[in-house]
Design goal:
With 331 residues, the chain is of the alpha+beta class. It has 13 helices and twelve strands. Among the domains are: 43 residues; 100 residues, CO dehydrogenase flavoprotein, C-terminal domain (Enolase-like, domain 1, 2-Layer Sandwich), CATH 3.30.390. Bound molecules: flavin-adenine dinucleotide and iron/sulfur cluster.
Amino acid sequence: MQSISYERARDVNHAIELARQPGAKFIGGGTNLLDLYKSGIEKPVRLVDVSRLSLRDIDELPNGGLRIGAMASNTALATHPLVRQRYRVLSEALLNGATTQLRNMATVGGNLLQRTRCYYFTDPAFSHCNKRDPGSGCDAIDGHNRIHAILGASEHCIATHPSDMAVALAALDAIVHLQGPDGERQVPLIDFHRLPEDHPEIDTVIRPGELIIAVELPLTPFAQNSHYVKVRDRASYAFALVSVAVAVDLDGGKVRDLRIALGGVAHKPWRARDAESVLRGQAPTEELLARAGTAAVAGARGYAHNAFKIELAQRAVVRALQTVIGKGGQA
Ligand SMILES: Cc1cc2nc3c(=O)[nH]c(=O)nc-3n(C[C@H](O)[C@H](O)[C@H](O)COP(=O)(O)OP(=O)(O)OC[C@H]3O[C@@H](n4cnc5c(N)ncnc54)[C@H](O)[C@@H]3O)c2cc1C
Ligand code: SF4
């Protein structure tokens, strides 16, 4: 393990200034970064501690949405009364992740930037990983790939993004607020994480030295009627094989608008727009729910050990929709 220096940022500007130093990395709760540092995957030279910045508040916006400070803990966010009341899918997704102890430490910013759980990435004993060492190859493609992607993968990487929270945020049209050396900007959550393409070493569109300062949730008509389904090998303390976040605005017997996002299936939270189109404006019959499930995995490709995820994702979409729409699929 290489030596490392540590500095605690006083405020956002100080954090951004400290991050200009070579080899500097922000640290929030440290629950992902420190694991990867200990195994030699991440090699920061300087840790810039942003966990004590005054970015913990979760505030209602004048337009009825929420602004979530990037240092809010996963527990604080999951248990916030307005989140439970208006954005149920987000609370459920968070409470389905990790453990109480980890959620108490983990921050919203760090959660979005956690790295993949691909075993070939997290274990330096494996030498071919384009994400860890660009150009070295991908041990997962012909290896054990049970947890890997079925959608949006490339010939260079088939890893998935592990965050439950990000899947819910994708279904809620969340916006990520960033501040860096060039000022502030906002990125829709669905555009924040990347597909691997030719550069799997780049997980997101965040620029060097940029700090996530907040996540904004617009007040949407579908958020309140929402649900998260997570399918995993154990009932707790396990990452998703497949997960689904759904949010549905019902108008009498019809679906006025909806969002469907999948986790555990791609390098980023996967918005299932084709599946949404099947149901938008329709009375949701069992047949239409099944068609939406099929549309959600259009173009999916299974590898040697993960082809089961295709049907699993279809079924998870149907189950999540049935839960929010009402038993039997009829509104
Ligand atoms: C045993 C275990 C089980 C888990 N199970 C689940 C699970 O089921 N579901 C799930 O979703 N997650 C799970 N997790 C992952 C957990 O949610 C993440 O480790 C956590 O959310 C990361 O947040 P953090 O604040 O600790 O990030 P850190 O480890 O502090 O940082 C992670 C990354 O984000 C960067 N960073 C941190 N904050 C900012 C910021 N504000 N701006 C810019 N960059 C920043 C850091 O530089 C680092 O690269 C699990 C973790 C463990 C250890
Ligand atoms: S799937 Fe991606 S992260 Fe996993 S070994 Fe291949 S390149 Fe590395």
